[in-house]
Amino acid sequence: MLIVLPLLACAATALRSAPFPQNYGDYTVSRIPRQRQKAQPSELKITENVVELTRARSGRSLSSTIVHSMRQFGRSRVSRVANGTTAIDAVAGGQVFSASVVVGGGQEFSVVIDTGSSDPWLVTTDFICRDVVGHTVQEQSYCGFGEMYDPSRSLTYQPISDLNFNITYADGEYLTGDLAYETFTMAGIEVQNQQFGVVDRAAWFGDHTTAGLVGFAYRSLVSAYAGTDLSTDSPSTRCLYNPLFVNMFENENIAPVFSMAIDRDLDKGGVMALGGIPDIPHSPHWVSVEIEPVGVNQTNGQEVYEFYTIEVGGYAYSNVSGPQFNVYDNANPTKIPVVQNSTRAIVDSGTSLCYVPDAVADALAMAFNPPAWWSSDNDAYMVDCEATAPVFGVVIADKIFYVNALDLIVLVEEGQCAMGVQPAQGGLSILGGTWMKNVIAVFDIGAEEMRFAAREFYSIS
Questions:
Q1: Is the pTM of this model over 0.85?
Q2: What is the full DSSP assignment across 383-452?
Q3: Domains of the chain in sequence order
Q4: What is the pLDDT of residue 2?
Q5: Which positions are catalytic?
């Protein structure tokens, strides 16, 4: 039987970022051009295609590495922090979520879920582990992978010739290997002939549980390159292919949406639904806002990460009981005005905290009782663990999504707490875990919009 495999488009189809970039030291952030015709918004239906998310006990998320590099470049405050020397680093380092995937009809793996990269990849049982800094060969356990992929155990594994897989992350981690076709099943959805990276060399800070990664970003960030000589890999030799979720909605009759609901309980991760929303309690009121995808490029022009950004209508905060806010741009003496109208923010589950314009964070810190204080040792606002938190919310599409007071005080270590909302310090504003624990976040890739509903009976006005 003749099997027709998906084609990989190389070289001429590589996409360039839009003009007018923003520079953050070693990184440039640019608008990603639209890659397909914009579709009508998908109807949000409860789906059974749901996978449980597990929160890793250790490890820095890929997105937080870039976020903090850009914050350090824009820093306007004095800081004495050295990498990894403070207790808050474990919180500020982000959060890594993983999920289960079945490959080749029988091998089940835990993989990192990453909305900022595109490739699915797995490490093989015979891979060579190297140190990130010195690049010396190490024992496989040094790289910290869990159970690894064995191509010889699969009846559906098909190698792809004359291509190589090559990806380097912002913190120095890197992976190389080959490309192949394989059958992937996630959340009950099977995709045959899925292209993926077969990693045989890795420098990786693993969590001793996951064996790879599945990316949910646009396909412009895939890491397949023409030829087998890694030294010739460049943006001009990149070969585009459909990531796993793109193949799901293009070929498996799945709506082009995925959604996430993050759990506050650290022993749990949350849920991710593919093609719809999970069956969990939430407000009946939804809002929608256009996605503006942006790419993060290194100084050599290589794109290394992508973020989903949205327009934020402002931030609401008050230390009075039952405040009434004015979300509109007009004078209303009976209501408290929101601040920092019409800014852009990244929606990122991999960032634990929220990062907002400095003036917003400063004012919010003063609204705690007792007030939070700036710690140059931690490069963060710290707060009394027993403090009374103010009301805080984020305005999206003229609706305020409030953050539960429990999420505004983050335990760093025994007797030491940080504010769940921190200053961006000239970097990008981030709606991270502090805020995302309070919503269902829907990524409608087809319509290029995000939708949000408040969760667990949290207020939405």
A1: yes
A2: E-TTPBP-EEEEEETTEEEEPPHHHHEEEEETTEEEESEEE-TTS-EEE-HHHHTTEEEEEETTTTEEEE
A3: 46-61+96-274 (2.40.70.10), 287-454 (2.40.70.10)
A4: 43
A5: 114, 348
